[in-house]
Design brief:
- The chain is α/β, with parallel strands linked by helices.
- Strand 6 and strand 7 (about 155-165) form a beta hairpin.
- It contains four helices and seven strands.
- The protein has helices at about 10-25, 30-40, 50-75, 130-135; strands at about 10, 75-80, 90-100, 100-110, 125, 145, 155-165.
- It is about 35% helix and about 25% strand.
Length: about 170
Protein backbone atom coordinates (compact mmCIF):
# COMPACT_ATOMS: atom_id res chain seq x y z
CA UNK A 1 0.00 0.00 0.00
CA UNK A 2 1.66 3.20 -1.09
CA UNK A 3 0.57 6.49 0.32
CA UNK A 4 1.99 9.97 0.57
CA UNK A 5 0.40 10.57 3.97
CA UNK A 6 2.81 9.57 6.74
CA UNK A 7 0.24 9.98 9.51
CA UNK A 8 -1.10 7.34 11.85
CA UNK A 9 -3.77 4.97 10.60
CA UNK A 10 -7.04 5.24 12.55
CA UNK A 11 -10.41 3.58 12.30
CA UNK A 12 -13.30 5.98 11.71
CA UNK A 13 -14.48 5.21 15.25
CA UNK A 14 -11.08 6.12 16.74
CA UNK A 15 -10.91 9.30 14.63
CA UNK A 16 -14.37 10.38 15.81
CA UNK A 17 -13.57 9.56 19.45
CA UNK A 18 -10.31 11.54 19.33
CA UNK A 19 -12.07 14.47 17.65
CA UNK A 20 -14.63 14.51 20.49
CA UNK A 21 -11.83 14.34 23.06
CA UNK A 22 -10.07 17.29 21.39
CA UNK A 23 -13.28 19.34 21.40
CA UNK A 24 -13.82 18.63 25.12
CA UNK A 25 -10.21 19.30 26.14
CA UNK A 26 -9.94 22.52 24.17
CA UNK A 27 -13.38 23.78 25.24
CA UNK A 28 -15.15 22.97 28.51
CA UNK A 29 -12.21 21.24 30.23
CA UNK A 30 -9.77 24.03 29.37
CA UNK A 31 -12.21 26.56 30.86
CA UNK A 32 -12.67 24.42 33.98
CA UNK A 33 -8.90 24.46 34.58
CA UNK A 34 -8.75 28.24 34.04
CA UNK A 35 -11.56 28.65 36.58
CA UNK A 36 -9.71 26.47 39.12
CA UNK A 37 -6.51 28.49 38.65
CA UNK A 38 -8.44 31.73 39.11
CA UNK A 39 -10.17 30.46 42.25
CA UNK A 40 -6.86 29.27 43.70
CA UNK A 41 -5.24 32.65 42.92
CA UNK A 42 -7.97 34.35 44.92
CA UNK A 43 -6.94 32.32 47.98
CA UNK A 44 -3.75 34.34 48.33
CA UNK A 45 -0.10 33.26 48.66
CA UNK A 46 0.72 31.21 45.57
CA UNK A 47 3.97 29.78 46.96
CA UNK A 48 2.14 27.53 49.40
CA UNK A 49 -1.08 27.06 47.44
CA UNK A 50 -1.27 23.36 46.47
CA UNK A 51 -4.52 23.80 44.56
CA UNK A 52 -2.96 26.48 42.35
CA UNK A 53 0.11 24.40 41.54
CA UNK A 54 -1.98 21.27 40.86
CA UNK A 55 -4.27 23.21 38.51
CA UNK A 56 -1.28 24.72 36.67
CA UNK A 57 0.24 21.25 36.26
CA UNK A 58 -3.08 19.92 34.95
CA UNK A 59 -3.23 22.85 32.55
CA UNK A 60 0.19 21.93 31.15
CA UNK A 61 -0.82 18.29 30.68
CA UNK A 62 -4.07 19.32 29.01
CA UNK A 63 -2.33 21.69 26.58
CA UNK A 64 0.16 18.94 25.73
CA UNK A 65 -2.64 16.47 24.98
CA UNK A 66 -4.44 19.09 22.86
CA UNK A 67 -1.28 19.62 20.78
CA UNK A 68 -0.79 15.85 20.44
CA UNK A 69 -4.38 15.29 19.29
CA UNK A 70 -4.27 18.17 16.79
CA UNK A 71 -1.09 16.79 15.19
CA UNK A 72 -2.46 13.25 15.14
CA UNK A 73 -5.82 14.18 13.62
CA UNK A 74 -4.35 16.56 11.02
CA UNK A 75 -2.18 13.77 9.59
CA UNK A 76 -4.34 10.72 10.25
CA UNK A 77 -5.21 8.15 7.61
CA UNK A 78 -8.78 7.03 8.23
CA UNK A 79 -9.47 3.31 7.87
CA UNK A 80 -11.89 3.16 4.94
CA UNK A 81 -9.10 3.50 2.36
CA UNK A 82 -7.38 0.18 3.24
CA UNK A 83 -7.40 -2.19 0.25
CA UNK A 84 -7.64 -5.96 0.61
CA UNK A 85 -4.74 -6.67 -1.74
CA UNK A 86 -2.54 -8.70 0.62
CA UNK A 87 0.05 -5.94 0.79
CA UNK A 88 1.07 -4.94 4.31
CA UNK A 89 0.31 -1.34 5.20
CA UNK A 90 -1.36 0.77 7.88
CA UNK A 91 -4.79 -0.60 8.74
CA UNK A 92 -3.87 -4.21 8.03
CA UNK A 93 -4.06 -7.07 10.51
CA UNK A 94 -0.88 -9.05 9.94
CA UNK A 95 -0.14 -12.64 10.85
CA UNK A 96 3.57 -13.26 10.80
CA UNK A 97 6.31 -15.47 12.08
CA UNK A 98 8.74 -13.25 13.93
CA UNK A 99 12.04 -14.80 14.96
CA UNK A 100 10.33 -18.18 14.64
CA UNK A 101 7.27 -17.30 16.77
CA UNK A 102 3.73 -16.75 15.39
CA UNK A 103 2.24 -13.33 16.02
CA UNK A 104 -0.89 -11.44 14.98
CA UNK A 105 -1.05 -7.63 15.19
CA UNK A 106 -2.51 -4.49 13.68
CA UNK A 107 -0.17 -2.21 11.78
CA UNK A 108 -1.55 1.20 12.68
CA UNK A 109 -1.75 3.59 15.59
CA UNK A 110 -1.78 2.88 19.30
CA UNK A 111 -4.78 5.21 19.44
CA UNK A 112 -6.72 2.47 17.64
CA UNK A 113 -6.07 0.01 20.47
CA UNK A 114 -8.89 1.50 22.56
CA UNK A 115 -11.37 0.91 19.72
CA UNK A 116 -10.58 -2.74 19.16
CA UNK A 117 -13.66 -4.89 19.35
CA UNK A 118 -13.57 -8.67 19.69
CA UNK A 119 -9.89 -9.58 19.62
CA UNK A 120 -8.72 -7.83 22.78
CA UNK A 121 -5.33 -9.58 22.56
CA UNK A 122 -4.52 -7.88 19.26
CA UNK A 123 -1.39 -5.77 19.64
CA UNK A 124 -0.86 -2.57 17.68
CA UNK A 125 2.46 -1.66 16.05
CA UNK A 126 3.28 1.60 14.32
CA UNK A 127 4.21 1.59 10.64
CA UNK A 128 7.05 3.88 11.73
CA UNK A 129 8.54 1.29 14.11
CA UNK A 130 11.56 -0.68 12.85
CA UNK A 131 9.42 -3.78 12.22
CA UNK A 132 6.54 -1.81 10.72
CA UNK A 133 8.84 0.03 8.32
CA UNK A 134 10.48 -3.27 7.30
CA UNK A 135 7.25 -5.11 6.46
CA UNK A 136 5.23 -2.25 4.97
CA UNK A 137 4.71 -2.77 1.25
CA UNK A 138 5.55 -6.50 1.39
CA UNK A 139 3.14 -9.31 0.51
CA UNK A 140 2.07 -12.62 2.02
CA UNK A 141 4.94 -15.09 1.71
CA UNK A 142 7.66 -12.42 1.79
CA UNK A 143 10.44 -12.74 4.34
CA UNK A 144 12.22 -9.58 5.51
CA UNK A 145 14.76 -8.70 8.16
CA UNK A 146 15.13 -5.57 10.23
CA UNK A 147 17.43 -4.34 12.93
CA UNK A 148 15.83 -4.17 16.37
CA UNK A 149 16.66 -1.29 18.73
CA UNK A 150 19.06 -3.64 20.59
CA UNK A 151 21.03 -4.14 17.36
CA UNK A 152 19.90 -7.71 16.65
CA UNK A 153 18.69 -8.71 13.21
CA UNK A 154 15.14 -10.10 13.32
CA UNK A 155 13.49 -12.05 10.51
CA UNK A 156 9.77 -11.67 9.78
CA UNK A 157 7.84 -14.00 7.47
CA UNK A 158 4.45 -12.60 6.47
CA UNK A 159 1.75 -15.30 6.65
CA UNK A 160 -1.42 -13.20 6.13
CA UNK A 161 -2.49 -9.58 5.76
CA UNK A 162 -6.06 -8.35 5.67
CA UNK A 163 -7.83 -5.06 6.42
CA UNK A 164 -8.76 -4.38 10.02
CA UNK A 165 -12.50 -4.90 10.39
CA UNK A 166 -12.97 -3.99 14.07
Amino acid sequence: MTTENTGAWLTQEAYDRLTEELEYLSGPYRQEIVDRISAARDEGDLKENGGYHAAREEQGKNEGRIAQLKALLENAEVGEDVKDDGVVGPGMVVEAEIAGKPMKFLLGSREVAESLVGDSDLQVFSAHSPMGAAIEGHKVGDEVSYEAPNGKSITVKIKAAEPFAG
